[in-house]
Amino acid sequence: xxxxxxxxxxxxxxILRDIGMPHLDWAHGAAVNIVRRSMNVRDRPTHHQQxxxxxxxxxxxxxxxxxxxxxEIAAWRTLDARVRLHAEVLRESGMHPCARPRLAAIWHVLPxxxxxxxxxxxxxxxxDEPTPDAAPVFSDVTxxxxxxxxxxxxxxxxxxxxxxxxxxxxxxxxxxxxTPTPAEEKALDLKDQKLDDDISSPDGPETQNGVTGxxxxxxxx
Length: 221
Known about the structure:
There is one protein chain. The protein is mostly helical. It is built from seven helices and no strands.
């Protein structure tokens, strides 16, 4: 483990203590720290932070990277507004008292950001799908064929679904209903994307816009 990775791990565990949830896997604290840092510098995760999200939360990484690449200040302000909304709900409800309430609010907003990131991943997958009118392409090269020959159609058969990585068991987010704001639709290129209205989380506090989050007493359900 490098010095940077060790500091990254120490910061993640410190955040869990600050939000009063040291029993959670340190991956939760790491995700909160990454979002906090991205909000402060308005930039994408880099180095070991990027590698961590690639392995543990690719949808969250897709959200932060796309937001940073857009350069839309209004979308960053929307992210800040989401965090402030959760902080207000937690304060008014008396739920999740802790030393760092803003960090706790970021933890509660993670499922929303991951849901938006999944929309981005799905959008990319749909763009990679062949059109219905496209004629199938067949190749005599089998999947077992090596060398420098053609890959054949079998090599691309799973390209549409390969953009949707499996959920990490260490940092799995509950499904939530999220409505992108106009600023987010522009920054994230989600104007034609919508979340399933039937998807919701049965656990956690309900915010003013109907978005639910994870319960503070037992981690993500």
